[in-house]
Amino acid sequence: MIERFAQRLGEAVARRESQIVLGLDPDPAELWPAAGGADGPAVARHCRAVIAAAGGACVAVKAQLACFERLGAAGWVALEQTVEAAHEADLLVIADAKRGDVPVTASAYAEAFAALGADAFTANPLLGRDSLEPLVASGRGVFVLVRTSNPGAADVQDLELAAGGPLWERLARLVDELAGGGSGLSDVGAVLGATRSEHLERARELMPRAVFLLPGVGAQGGRVEDLAPAFAPGRAAGLVTASRAIVDAHRQGGADPASAAAAAAERLRAGAWSLSA
Known about the structure:
Order of helices and strands: HEHEHHEHEHEHEHEEHHH
Helix content: 40-55%
Structural class: alpha/beta
């Protein structure tokens, strides 16, 4: 039985003094020059270089599985090597897969994440509670999509229900129900877009024990300074995800990719840490 994700996360946040998650969304056409190509091995070299450069200011990496899977079998090898590199750097690994299916398939997804070595993963809740229960039972962290960062999220997640309130609030209540009783942070967390920070205070009321995974800072327009409500239960209660804002930082300032990524990650780390002091 693996140690609870929330406990390991809390320890890692305290040890590394960081709540930053390094997003890895590798585009074979946009890899760092040091990767030396655009194939599966080059993707692995790129991700390892990014982790080496920016990982010291982070507590976890979030690997966007689609960006690896589009390369076929070579992409899965690159993903496994990236997970290995992250763990070697003492970083937790979140598999950003947004899986959601009937219970028997959800159980297979949970086994796949275990085989990969992921510490946590993202999940789509629209098939309902029974599609999430096998994922929760895996003992790994589960970040349920609640109110996402993309503009089209409003098309569905903001719809008013007949019982009252928007759909995303019902999803938040489901996350809280799956968290169960007890105190402290739960292994069941929520994905909440940093681009809509006005929802965070209400989300925290509905999910007092959930860890919030907060994508959308930087390239999508979200700002770290707007995320304070996420950290109300403690420093490990919010994880700020940044991908392009770190990996592509050299495109703005002209520095070499590794130096620019390290500086960008440290700025985000210091900004988030100051909010939760």
